[in-house]
Amino acid sequence: MPIYLAADIELRPGTGLVIEAPSHEGPNVVVFEDDGETGYFYALDIANGDNPIQDALHIYDVQQISDRDKPSNLRVGWSKDHEKAVLLINDYPHAVFDFEAKRGYCRSGFPESSGTSWSESGHQWADDALGLFE
User: Fold this and answer.
1) d(CA 23, CA 30)
2) How crowded is residue 31: how many other Cβ atoms within 10 Å of its Cβ?
3) What distance in Å separates the CA atoms of residue 2 and residue 17, rounded to the nearest whole number?
């Protein structure tokens, strides 16, 4: 998967953390947030001043992580065209945003579609989402 890294940090689920990972070019930014109870991944378009948040993906509930006391590695990578972002935890893909198609994919499939222009068909994971990075 040819990507460039925009974030590479140690994560301890439930400790509270916000990581911004902008693409190298353009207005696209992704943000990972652990608020102490849940982990979410957000797609932002900073050119949209009124509401930069375009979509949100549920990554985990802290209480459901059996090894939450162990450190994990969190990485955010961008495609070479700066239009797709992937969230990797311990090198396992948990979420993908495709800014060009206005679509988000995550392992939990949550939340359901909000009826906005993003992810109209929902957030269900599809293994071919990783093909976006080839």
Assistant:
1) 8
2) 19
3) 27
Give 73-128 pLDDT, tens digit per residue: 999 999 999 999 999 999 999 999 999 999 999 999 999 876 678 988 899 999 99
Cβ–Cβ under 8 Å, residues 109 and 122: yes
DSSP 58-112: EEEEGGG-TTTTS-EEEEEEE-TTSSEEEEEETTEEEEEEETTTTEEEETT--SP
Task: Read off the pTM.
Answer: 0.94
Look up residue 126 and give its two tokens. 């599809």
Place of tokens 């939990």: 108
> What ranges do the domains of the chain cover?
4-133
CA 39, distance to chain mean position in Å, is 10
> pLDDT grade, residue 134 (50/70/90)?
confident
